[in-house]
Design goal:
Distance between the termini: 73 Å
Shape: globular
Structural class: mainly alpha
Strand content: 5-15%
Oligomer: single chain
Order of helices and strands: HHHHHHHHHEEEHEEEEHH
Largest sheet: 3 strands, antiparallel
Helix content: 40-55%
Length: 329
C-alpha cells in the first residue's frame, strides 16, 4: 500500500498547478442570453471592446470613476487623456463612451460574469450574440439607418457605423428581442441614456468579431496607446494573464475578506477591529486619569513631588467617598 500512496503523490506533483482544484464555471444558454442581451446589438467594434474589457472588471471600475471626474471629455479626447493609465487598451477605449462605461460599472456582478463567460466560452458567446441579433432583426428592432449599417456576412449579422461618428444607443432587452423566453435568467436593467455622436479616429477599433471562427480578432495595434502590451497583437485575442495565471473561481461559501495585521484597512471590505467591552474600556480610562503626569524638567522635580503628594492625599480621600457611594448604586 505504501508504494501505491507514493505513486499517487508523485502523480499529483507532476500535474500542472493550474489543473489542480480549478473548476471553471460553465454558463448555461439561458445565462449567456441574459448576460449578452444588453450589449449584443451594439456595433461590432464596440461589442468586441466591451467583451475584452469585461475581463478586467477592476480597471473598468477605475475608468468609470475617471470618466465621472472628467464629464467634459468623450471620444478621442478622453482616450488620449487616459493614455498614461496602466489599463488594458480595451478599457481605455471605453472612456470614449462614458454612458456605456457607467452602466457597466454600475452592474459589477454582470460585468464579472460576462468576463468569465467570455474567457471560458468565447465561441458560445459569439454564437449567442448572433442568436440575439437574429431575434432583434425578426422583431424589426435591428436594421440599417443613417448612422449604422446592418448587413449579412455569410450567416452572421454585422453591425458597423457608417462613418467615424459612432452612436452607442440604449435599448431595452425586454422590448427589442420580443417576450423574454427564460423565466429564471433575466437581463440586467440599465438606466436609459440619450444617444450622442462620438467622433473616433481612423483605426480606433483595433479589434472586431471574427464571426466565422467564433472569436474576437485583433486587427492591428491600438492607435490610442503608445506602449503596446505584448498580449495585444494581430491575431486571435489573448488575455494578458491567460498564460501565467488561469482564472480560479472561489465558491461563495469559501470567500473570506483579506485581513492584514499591522496594516490599515485599505477598503470597506476589510474586517473592522474587534471592539473591547465597555467595562474594560472604562477601567482603562480610569487608570489613565489616576496615572500621574510627571514633569519632564529636572529642576522642578522637588516642587513637583510636593504638589503631587498633596494632590494625591486629597484625591485619595475624595476617591474613597466616591467609591463607597458608587458601590451602593
Amino acid at each position: 500500500m505504501k508504494w501505491l500512496f507514493a505513486a499517487l503523490a508523485a502523480l499529483l506533483v507532476s500535474v500542472p498547478a493550474h489543473a489542480q482544484g480549478v473548476q471553471n464555471r460553465i454558463y448555461s444558454q439561458g445565462e449567456l442570453d441574459a448576460l449578452l442581451a444588453p450589449v449584443a446589438l451594439q456595433p461590432d467594434g464596440v461589442l468586441s471592446q466591451v467583451l475584452m474589457a469585461a475581463t478586467y472588471p477592476d480597471e473598468v471600475a477605475a475608468a468609470a470613476q475617471w470618466s465621472r471626474a472628467n464629464p467634459q471629455l468623450r471620444g478621442d479626447q478622453a482616450v488620449r487623456a487616459v493614455e498614461p493609465e496602466p489599463w488594458d487598451p480595451s478599457v481605455k477605449a471605453l472612456v470614449a463612451f462614458p454612458d456605456l462605461l457607467a452602466r457597466m460599472e454600475e452592474s459589477p456582478q454582470w460585468l464579472r460574469e460576462l468576463g468569465e463567460a467570455f474567457l471560458q466560452q468565447q465561441a458560445q458567446v459569439m454564437d449567442t450574440v448572433q442568436s440575439l441579433r437574429r431575434r432583434a432583426q425578426a422583431t424589426g428592432q435591428l436594421s440599417s439607418n443613417e448612422q449604422t449599417s446592418v448587413y449579412a456576412q455569410g450567416e452572421a449579422i454585422v453591425v458597423e457605423p457608417r462613418t467615424q461618428i459612432v452612436y452607442v444607443r440604449y435599448y431595452d432587452p425586454y422590448v427589442v428581442y420580443g417576450p423574454w423566453w427564460w423565466p429564471h435568467y433575466r437581463p440586467v436593467f440599465w438606466r436609459p441614456w440619450a444617444p450622442r455622436p462620438v467622433f473616433v479616429a481612423t483605426g480606433f477599433f483595433y479589434s472586431k468579431p471574427d464571426w466565422s471562427h467564433r472569436h474576437v480578432q485583433v486587427v492591428h495595434r491600438p492607435v490610442h496607446v503608445r506602449t503596446y502590451p505584448q498580449h495585444v497583437a494581430p491575431g486571435k485575442w489573448q488575455h494578458s494573464q491567460l498564460s501565467t495565471r488561469p482564472y480560479q473561481r472561489v465558491p461563495e461559501s469559501q470567500r473570506r475578506p483579506i485581513v492584514q495585521q499591522h496594516m490599515p484597512a485599505a477598503s470597506g471590505f476589510s474586517r473592522p477591529q474587534q471592539q473591547q467591552p465597555r467595562t474594560q474600556m472604562r477601567r482603562q480610562e480610569d487608570r489613565r486619569e489616576q496615572r500621574p503626569q510627571f514633569d519632564q524638567n529636572p529642576r522642578r522635580g522637588g516642587e513637583h513631588r510636593g504638589q503631587f503628594q498633596q494632590r494625591g492625599n486629597q484625591g485619595g480621600n475624595q476617591g474613597g467617598h466616591q467609591g463607597r457611594g458608587g458601590g451602593r448604586g
